[in-house]
Amino acid sequence: MSSANNLPAEQDHGDGELAVKGDNPFADPGLPPHEHRRTDIDEKAANRAERQVAFLFLISMLATIGFIVSYYAIPKSQIVYIFLLGRVSALNFSLGLTLGVALFCIGAGAVQWARTLMSDVETPQERHPIEADKETREFVFEEFKAGAKDSAFGRRKLIRTTMFGALALVPLAGVVLLRDLGPLPGKKLMETNWAAGKRIINHNTGEPLKPSDIQVGSLTFAYPEGLSEEDEQFQEKIAKDALMLIRMRPEDIKDKTELDWSYEGIVAYSKICTHVGCPISLYEQQTHHVLCPCHQSTFDLSDGAKVIFGPAGHPLPQLKIHVGDDGFLAASQGFQEPVGPSYWERP
């Protein structure tokens, strides 16, 4: 047929297979010839590219330093006019600009390094089984070493030094921002509103407590005189001032100091757990143990409120108490150690 004259000739081998004469129309064309970059053949161009990358890393370092300086130097209340943005916070604009430049220059430097100095030779590899044999593993390690060598990481010391500098400085921006988690506590964590002579107020009734108000085996919560629930800062203050009073038989108290600081078996301890600051509220009358409901730290109130179980790091601070001339329970002094969880500056 005339239409078959333009097709490759076919020959029957007798076994049902057809042989096609002529070239395979789907032959693998292979990779195009590798074209060298200018930096591959011109050492001056390579050195110039190295300086460009180092310059970008250096700009990143300077921008990070600018971020830190801006954070401390620019007042939070300062407002500036920026074209297209209008009136904005000078501090926020400066922080955003410097941090953006620092991160951009690290990325741009890495891209320029890869495009101009790292090897760009195409290395195709056929698919292979997932599990590698010994020869394949050795090949991979050799390729890794070759890649490290081609990257010029060891030879281009200027790039390496400036890159390490940029990567080391950028995280400092995040460290500086930790300062904005809140005002510095100063000595606030070491002080409470308890002081000598302050009467102990029942948290439930709002009335001063007498010894007769606390029965053996009972648990009472209290706060210092002068603190009111109507105070806007009540929750902040009660977080350190919360007190619990338990009455035991004096003979059940094992620690002599604890006995001296109590009144007729009434002991007063901080209600704030020394683990993470949860309020303690569970009292075991027969064992004289108190349990924190958050993480099960357990304290023995008959033995100086020592930790007998759980993650708490130290005993509950005790408040020395007495009965005043008016017959009400009062503090003989403030807490002699910080209440609540441990922290770096805790003495």
UniProtKB/TrEMBL annotation:
Membrane topology: Multi-pass membrane protein
Chief site of localization: membrane
An annotated GO cellular component: plasma membrane
TM region(s), chain numbering: 53-74, 80-111, 158-178
Domain of life: Bacteria
Domain called Rieske: residue spans: 222-330
Gene3D superfamilies: Rieske [2Fe-2S] iron-sulphur domain (2.102.10.10)
Biased segments, Basic and acidic residues type: 10-20
Keywords, comma-separated and alphabetical: 2Fe-2S, Cell membrane, Disulfide bond, Electron transport, Iron, Iron-sulfur, Membrane, Metal-binding, Oxidoreductase, Respiratory chain, Transmembrane, Transmembrane helix, Transport
Disordered: region residues: 1-37
InterPro entries for this protein: QcrA_N, Rieske_2Fe-2S, Rieske_2Fe-2S_sf, Rieske_Fe-S_prot
Presence of the UniProt keyword Disulfide bond in the record: yes
A single GO molecular function term of this UniProt record: oxidoreductase activity, acting on paired donors, with incorporation or reduction of molecular oxygen
Record localization: Cell membrane
Family in the record: Belongs to the Rieske iron-sulfur protein family.
Function: Iron-sulfur subunit of the cytochrome bc1 complex, an essential component of the respiratory electron transport chain required for ATP synthesis. The bc1 complex catalyzes the oxidation of menaquinol and the reduction of cytochrome c in the respiratory chain. The bc1 complex operates through a Q-cycle mechanism that couples electron transfer to generation of the proton gradient that drives ATP synthesis.
Assembly and binders: The cytochrome bc1 complex is composed of a cytochrome b (QcrB), the Rieske iron-sulfur protein (QcrA) and a diheme cytochrome c (QcrC) subunit.
Protein name per UniProt: Cytochrome bc1 complex Rieske iron-sulfur subunit
